[in-house]
Amino acid sequence: MVIPFEPHRFQNAAAEYLAGRPAYSPRLFQRIALLCELDRTHRVLDLGCGPGQIAIALAPFVGHVTGIDPEPEMLGQARAAAPELEWIVGSSYDLPSLAPRLGRLRLVTMGRSFHWMDRPATLAQLDEMIEPDGAIALIADEHPDVPGNAWHAAFKAITDRVGASDPAKAFRDQHWLPHEAVLLESRFHVLETIAVIESSRVPVETLVMRTRTMSSVARHAEQFADELRGVLAPFAEDGAVTEVIASRALIARRASAG
């Protein structure tokens, strides 16, 4: 089952996305570069790149990086941060026509984007574009169940309640297979997960801003902002909470890559 494609779903979130969302750990990209044996002869594609944080983080390790996203506002943020990289307006559905321009790829990354695609079709197309020893890396962030994240259950309860009316979220809740299950049925079925876990202090107002970058709740964000401040207040000190983030990469290779 495929979530209906909405190319401009994140149009209004672009300006606040980087400030509101948790940052991926730089150490994660060092590990990805090592495990995927990246060097300056390689090409990387960040598919559904948003404001470009993954593409920019991997650029020092390879010879060429391309970021693709359907939202021009997101690409505007990416281009402002790294004008030297290649940014293309498009989506996974444009891969067949873009393949000659993109060339042979060593690595394709997707962060918070794979679930918006026709996943089996995307993997089949990438099988034609990724070199034999190349890989796919699905990058995400999670909140481990540790005392520092005690506030997160209350945060999630509110955003889940408000987001329940979003058709895309309802679709995922009812018809969803984990990415691992989809990958195991593809050519990229040799899977490995790595994670870097870090702790930081995050202002409550940043968490309120974060809801404006979450497509399932963004249009209602101002309506529940005060409720959110109220439930986070008991966990806050000097207006901030501790946030423990696991920056994760699910690396998928073909069997022939060993």
Key structural traits:
single chain; 258 residues; alpha/beta; Rossmann fold; 7-stranded mixed sheet; 11 helices; 24% strand
Concise overview:
The protein has helices spanning 14-20, 26-35, 53-58, 72-81, 95-102, 119-129, 152-163, 167-175, 179-184, 204-211, 221-232; strands at 43-47, 64-69, 86-89, 105-111, 130-142, 190-203, 240-253. It is an alpha/beta fold.
The CATH architecture classification is 3-Layer(aba) Sandwich
The neighbouring-strand order within the major sheet is 3-2-1-4-5-7-6
Main sheet properties: 7 strands, mixed
Strand content: 15-25%
> N-to-C SSE series?
HHEHEHEHEHEHHHEHHE
Any overview of this molecule?
The chain is an alpha/beta fold and 258 residues long. The protein has a single domain (11-257), classed as Vaccinia Virus protein VP39 (Rossmann fold). It has helices spanning 14-20, 26-35, 53-58, 72-81, 95-102, 119-129, 152-163, 167-175, 179-184, 204-211, 221-232, and strands at 43-47, 64-69, 86-89, 105-111, 130-142, 190-203, 240-253. The chain has a seven-stranded mixed beta sheet with strand order 3-2-1-4-5-7-6. Helix 1 packs antiparallel against helix 10, helix 7 packs antiparallel against helix 11 and helix 10 (204-211) packs antiparallel against helix 11 (221-232). The mean pLDDT is 91.
What are the SSEs and their pairings?
Elements lengths: L13 H7 L5 H10 L7 E5 L5 H6 L5 E6 L2 H10 L4 E4 L5 H8 L2 E7 L7 H11 E13 L9 H12 L3 H9 L3 H6 L5 E14 H8 L9 H12 L7 E14 L5
Parallel strand pairs: 1-2, 1-4, 2-3, 4-5
Antiparallel strand pairs: 5-7, 6-7
Helix pairs in contact: 1-10, 5-6, 7-11, 10-11
